[in-house]
């Protein structure tokens, strides 16, 4: 399908509809129209005795085609939307963690302090409203990377001793990696720094499946606390961002 187009000298040519260069095309059309209007203003008789009237009509008719053909500009997801996604992903992780704890629960509390380098979950609910975006995201990221290292250790131990929860553990590790990637993207958007904590020190390989279960219980309990806290933090930061946007 072809559309009539005029060059700068006023000659009409046929151009395939799909070959438009959309950038500044409307401005070019308006430039041609201005030339014709200027010519008509200085020589009124030209409008009657030449094809300028037809040319002007054709150019005016093309403007809606170009303006409608220009694609809408891409809008990046806003901060609130991304924080809500982080909260939902953390909620999913918390649920999987709770399911694993139910499936392999002990009648007594597991032996604690096998992991010396786990993040300390000593946050207070009263502090949550005073948290600032950048340092909070940086700390959550550092804690999440630490848990990622610990679960990688647990995954290796589980494969060796044929841990029955290995499939669900693999699903959880995949979600942790996805959450880490989402969090890193958000940190880049708000210019939050990545912390560089020392590499976590792991306990020696567990000698039996019972020891693997004990280790997994301790790790899952701590990670559930982290998910509880992180989900609340993301939700509070999202609410604060919404309030800032309307002010």
UniProtKB/TrEMBL annotation:
It comes from the Eukaryota. GO terms for biological process: positive regulation of cell population proliferation; positive regulation of MAPK cascade. GO terms for cellular component: cytoplasm. InterPro entries: 4_helix_cytokine-like_core, IL-11, IL-11_fish, IL-11A_fish. GO terms for molecular function: cytokine activity; growth factor activity. PANTHER family: INTERLEUKIN 11 (PTHR16922), INTERLEUKIN-11 (PTHR16922:SF0). This is Interleukin 11. It comes from Oncorhynchus mykiss. The lineage of its organism: Eukaryota, Metazoa, Chordata, Craniata, Vertebrata. The gene is il11.
């Amino acid at each position: 399908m072809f559309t009539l187009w005029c060059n700068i000298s006023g000659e009409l040519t046929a151009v395939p509809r799909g070959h438009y260069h959309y950038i500044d095309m409307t401005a070019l059309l308006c430039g041609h129209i201005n030339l014709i209007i200027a010519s008509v203003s200085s020589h009124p008789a030209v409008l009657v005795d030449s094809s300028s009237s037809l040319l002007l009509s054709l150019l005016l008719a093309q403007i809606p085609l170009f303006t409608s053909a220009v694609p809408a500009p891409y809008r990046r997801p806003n901060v609130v939307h991304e924080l809500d996604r982080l909260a939902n992903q953390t909620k999913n992780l918390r649920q999987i963690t709770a399911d694993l704890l139910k499936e392999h629960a002990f009648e007594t509390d597991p032996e604690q302090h096998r992991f010396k380098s786990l993040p300390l979950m000593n946050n207070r609910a009263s502090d949550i409203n005073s948290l600032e975006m950048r340092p909070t995201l940086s700390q959550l990221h550092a804690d999440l990377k630490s848990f990622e290292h610990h679960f990688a250790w647990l995954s290796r131990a589980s494969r060796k001793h044929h841990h029955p929860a290995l499939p669900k553990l693999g699903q959880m590790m995949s979600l942790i990696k996805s959450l880490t990637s989402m969090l890193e993207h958000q940190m880049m958007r708000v210019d939050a720094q990545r912390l560089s904590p020392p590499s976590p020190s792991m306990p020696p390989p567990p000698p039996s499946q019972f020891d693997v279960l004990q280790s997994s219980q301790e790790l899952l309990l701590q990670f559930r606390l982290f998910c509880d806290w992180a989900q609340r933090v993301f939700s509070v930061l999202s609410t604060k961002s919404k309030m800032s946007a309307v002010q």
